[in-house]
Hints:
This protein has 430 residues and is α+β, with helices and mostly antiparallel strands. The protein has helices at 117-129, 133-142, 290-296, 307-319, and strands at residues 60-68, 148-153, 161-176, 185-186, 193-194, 210-215, 229-237, 240-244, 249-254, 259-274, 279-289, 337-355.
Amino acid sequence: MVARRVSTAAVLFALACAACKVYDPDLVQRREPDAGQRCELDRPPLRPPGSDDGEDVGELVYALKDVVLNQDGERWRTIGYDLDGLCSIGPMPPVECRPPSRTAAPETDGEGGIDNAFGHHLYPLVAVTLPTLEEDARASEELGIGAIVVRIRGWNGEPNDPRVDAMLLIGQAGTEGPADGSRPAVDDSGTELLLPDGSSAPPPAWEGNDWFWARSDSFFDGDEARPLLRDDNAYVSDNLLVAQLPERADILFQATEQAVLVRLTEGIAVARFVDGGARLEAHVAGRWPILDILQTAARVGICPGSTEYNLVAGQLDRIADIRQNAGTGGPDVTCDAMSLGAAFTGYPAHFGGVLEATDIPNACEDPPDPDGGVDAGSEDAGLPDAGVDGGPEDAGPSDAGVDGGPEDAGPPDAGPEDASPGDADTVGGG
């Protein structure tokens, strides 16, 4: 089935812009260490020189799965990139800012100055509440739900290309393609993928012949020509695709029962072509503002004012390690964001089109289902019942009075005993 109900929402690519910021190569260059630095900063390579990028190979599509959220042990040290231009290691590390909690120690960087407080500190905290979050997200990706779909245009197929067009879309559904190469269809309701013979399509096989459909909210106004996560000035350098993400765009990590949103500033997606393009090894990195983290906490039912919410807020004050806007830090400036790194593996695929996005409910704001107007006494909080009065056989037209007549079915009259305003039924009919 294409549409699956998302019954809860959790913390972790609304989408409100139709155009993307032109890529700034200064944000991703691999810098030489500054004086006093303790390591060479790990940043994606610079854009290759030249303007004539040769003949294009046509559109390439990859679907990403196997998201790495749990980065326990030392894994967090190698996922992501340096974001602040500092190598924050050692007993007195240089830092962009100080945590809001003055009793907290500054965050330590990973290898090559990698900034990834998410993998180092936040995910272990999230896992206490959602111990199967990564497992659920991966199971959903296997089915094509929430898998990130990457569309690449304008690549010359060489290790270096100074300009390509890269789009990241959030998958709504996916399926293994028919052996004859034909495109599966979507049924009239838009909820099920069908094979040419009309039977239900199987899940993706992840062998290079799968088809994926994107959520409609991956685009401005659902328009396939206007993707929200797009860098039309991306590039390929040393077999690395480098693309900047639009400022404060939401990235959705969707599981069958959970949906995790991350809103990044200075976001970047980097993917290495492996085995001649048979696979991608992708990282997403960026700055995640603390206020945005708190805002999305409600998606796992961590509601403002609750004990759990106050606990999370207190922990974020201790692990915030970066500014949401680069260049605004200083020795005594308070950190207002957390660095993030996540990893994926991508496989060749086909793009099927756009499907209506399933809802992402908010556990702290979504009201309970209305009860249809059936009252159950003084504690019924349902919608108004539009004049259901309680007479056992009252089949009369709706009114605003409570008359209690046992067989009120007559036309309006002027019965003296009915005191209800706007109603003239004779009690008892007739």
